């Protein structure tokens, strides 16, 4: 039986690692990105370079890599008032969540992903959400993903499987996963050709990649890189 998958591929470190994870496991893998008015929209422009690198450097994975899809979800920015969808200073809210939290984002992403997977005949849906190294986003939690899988399967009369390879690991372990899957070349590709910085900064190059170096996303990526370098 041919196992097919759709990876939610934003162009960041986590989703790039998930793409490698999927290519290592499934027979046919397609990718999906979302343009929802994010201020770090440059992440979408990184996706093609990373996919091209996979094709050029991994002959065992190249035939498995299928179509790439991008969906515009302007409505998400229209109903949100967050630091990811406007030029607002990143800060903590009174309820303890950072103002980078976009309400419903992952719920909407996965619902649209399932609708696309339905049309494309893809069974496995892979996302890089994580409960270990995250900012407290409730739509990244394991319980949320499990509940959504049930709802999607009931609502579409399908048996999709939602995979979260990073759910219980930190950023250092994510770097180690990438090395285990694709060796140093994959780590180098993630450093050079992915984007995490919330401010969309592609002018400053660090050991761990491009970014402002101070936003929460950069801080987390840097911390994971330092631990990965220190302990392997």
Principal-axes geometry comes out as globular
Q: How many strands, which pairing sense, and closed or not: the largest β-sheet?
A: 5 strands, parallel
How many runs of DSSP E, i.e. beta strands? 7
Unreliable stretches? none
Q: What name does the CATH topology carry?
A: Rossmann fold
Report the average pLDDT across residues.
89
Strand order of the largest sheet: 3-2-1-4-5
Class derived from helix and strand content: alpha/beta
Oligomer: single chain
CATH homologous superfamily (4th level) name? HUPs
Order of helices and strands: EHEHEHHEHEHEEH
Percent helix, as a range, is 40-55%
- Beta-strand content bin: 5-15%
- Terminal CA distance reads 37 Å
Structure description:
It is a single chain. Helix 5 (142-156) links the parallel strand 4 and strand 5. This protein has a single domain (4-231), classed as HUPs (Rossmann fold, 3-Layer(aba) Sandwich), CATH 3.40.50.620. It contains 7 helices and 7 strands; from the N terminus they run βαβαβααβαβαββα. By secondary structure, it is an alpha/beta fold. It has a 5-stranded parallel sheet with strand order 3-2-1-4-5, with helices on both faces. Strands 6-7 form a two-stranded antiparallel ribbon. 45% of the residues lie in helices and 13% in strands. The mean pLDDT is 89.
């Amino acid at each position: 039986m041919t196992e097919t998958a759709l990876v939610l591929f934003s162009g960041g470190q986590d989703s790039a690692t998930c793409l490698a994870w999927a290519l290592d496991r499934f027979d046919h893998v397609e990718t999906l990105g979302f343009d929802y008015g994010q201020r770090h929209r440059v992440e979408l422009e990184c996706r093609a370079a990373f996919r091209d690198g996979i094709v050029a450097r991994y002959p065992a994975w190249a035939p498995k890599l299928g179509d790439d899809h991008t969906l515009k979800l302007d409505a998400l920015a229209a109903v949100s008032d967050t630091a990811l969808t406007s030029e607002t200073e990143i800060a903590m809210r009174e309820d303890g969540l950072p103002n980078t939290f976009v309400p419903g984002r992952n719920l909407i992403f996965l619902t649209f992903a399932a609708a696309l997977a339905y049309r494309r005949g893809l069974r496995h849906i892979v996302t890089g959400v994580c409960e270990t190294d995250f900012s407290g986003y409730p739509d990244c939690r394991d319980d949320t993903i499990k509940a959504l899988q049930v709802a999607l399967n009931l609502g579409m009369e399908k048996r999709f499987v939602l995979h979260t390879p990073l759910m219980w690991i930190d950023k250092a372990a994510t770097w180690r996963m990438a090395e285990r899957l694709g060796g140093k070349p994959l780590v180098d590709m993630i450093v050079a050709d992915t984007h995490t910085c919330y401010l969309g900064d592609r002018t400053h190059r660090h050991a761990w990649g491009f970014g402002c170096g101070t936003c929460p996303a950069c801080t987390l990526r840097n911390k994971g890189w330092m631990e990965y370098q220190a302990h392997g």
